C-alpha cells in the first residue's frame, strides 16, 4: 500500500465513477481497479459496493475514507511546510574541518546537504583540531568538525560518528604481514606523525600512554602538517604512522600501504561537531546540525560504529 493507492481510493469514493476517476488521474480503469484490489487485500475487506450503477463505499470503505481524508490532508500540510523550510534556509555557513574529516567524510555530507539546501553557501576551512577550536572561540567559524577532544567551557561537543586509528606501514615492510604489532615492535619503527595539535596525534598519544608506552619514546623522524603528506612519506618508505583507517582507504586499495592493529589496544575515537556555547545558532547552523545527525547520514557511516 502506498500514497497513490490512497489517492485513487479517495477520488473514486468522491466521484463514485471509474470513468470520472480515470479522466482526473489520467490512468486506465484497470489500473484503478488494481489499486482498489491491493487496498482490499491489505485490509482484508471489501471497500466498494459495485452492485448498482454508481460505485458506493461499503461500511468498511466509509471507515477507511475518514482516515484517508485526514492522512492526505496531513501529507499536503507536510509538503507545504517542508517546501517553505527549504526556501527559508539560505545564507552562509562557515565550517572548519580537520584533515581526515574534510578529505574522507565531508564530501558526501556536503554533497547531500547542498542538494537539499541549494541556497546555502558553505565556506570550508581545513586545519587541525586546535586551530578550529580557536577559530570557534574567536567566532570566525560557525561550526567545527573535529577528530580530537576539545575541553573548553565555552565549546559544545556533539559526537556524530566513530573512527579507529591503525598503524600504517609501507606495503612491502617486513612487519606489514602481521595483523597486530606489540608495543615493543612499535618502539623499533621510525615514525612520521601529524604535527602537535592535530586531533589524530592527541588521541594516538593519549591511547599509547594509557597502554604504558610514552609517546616520546617513539622514534619520530618527521612531523608533517597534513594527512596526505604523512601518507606520502609512508608510501615512500620513510617510516610508519598511526592514522584513521578512513584516511588510507584509497592507498590500501592501490596496495601502497598496509594497516595493522596494536596488540591488546583499540585506538577508537568520536568525530565531533563543535560550536560556541554562548553564540546563538542561525537557522542555517541548526539545519546543518539536524542534517548531520539524521538517520540518512548515520546510515552512510553505520559500519564505522
Automatic annotation (TrEMBL):
Top-rank lineage group of the source organism: Bacteria
Annotated HTH lysR-type domain residues: 1-58
UniProt keywords, alphabetically: DNA-binding, Transcription, Transcription regulation
PROSITE patterns, A to Z: HTH_LYSR
Recorded GO MF terms: DNA-binding transcription factor activity; transcription cis-regulatory region binding
Pfam families attached to this UniProt entry: HTH_1, LysR_substrate
Gene3D superfamilies linked: 3.40.190.290, Winged helix-like DNA-binding domain superfamily/Winged helix DNA-binding domain
Transcription in keyword set: yes
Family of the protein in this entry: Belongs to the LysR transcriptional regulatory family.
PANTHER family: HTH-TYPE TRANSCRIPTIONAL REGULATOR, HTH-TYPE TRANSCRIPTIONAL REGULATOR CYSL
Protein name: LysR family transcriptional regulator
